[in-house]
Specification:
By secondary structure, the chain is α+β, with helices and mostly antiparallel strands. The protein has 3 helices and 8 strands; from the N terminus they run βαβββαβαβββ. A hairpin with an 8-residue loop joins strand 3 and strand 4 (74-81).
């Protein structure tokens, strides 16, 4: 997997189209979630778009938000492994990469996520701990989780 970090302003139009198509294919179509997928966080200057390329194909993606944008700490969201690549360990590699970026950019900040509830154990393997009760977001059960700074 080849990893690429970018801000909105540094994404070329083809890459932007590719990542937006993947997000819409997964979060709107696959999850049958007819809610707006694009928001102003995408274009914020301190948002990091993390893309994982495999043989020229976008296989993994996460959006990393600065502290205060969504939670009090930094945040990882819009986590996707493209359907053809879900059988491997790419999800774990993606989260490790995203955590590393958060710790480099904002070393004193906790990392907070709104995880889909069925992925709670996946995130626990990376040190995240639940700090909310389950709740519905766009009709899908979620739980807030935090990775505390060392």
């Amino acid at each position: 997997m080849e990893w690429q970090r970018a801000t909105f302003d540094t994404l070329d139009t083809r890459t932007l189209f590719t990542l937006m198509k993947l997000r819409i294919d997964v979060f709107v179509v696959e999850q049958a979630c007819a809610y707006p997928e694009l928001d102003t966080h995408d274009t914020a200057p301190d948002t990091v778009h993390l893309l994982g390329w495999l043989n020229g194909e976008l296989a993994a993606y996460a959006r990393i938000l600065a502290p205060g944008a969504s939670y009090s700490g930094s945040s990882i969201g819009r986590v996707i492994i493209a359907p053809p690549h879900r059988s491997g360990q790419w999800g774990h590699q993606l989260i490790r990469q995203a955590i590393q970026i958060c710790q480099q950019q904002w070393p004193e900040q906790d990392i907070e996520i709104g995880a889909q509830a069925h992925l709670q154990h996946f995130y626990q393997k990376h040190g995240f701990v639940a700090f909310s009760e389950p709740y519905l977001e766009d009709g899908i059960p979620h739980i807030d989780m935090r990775l505390s700074t060392p």
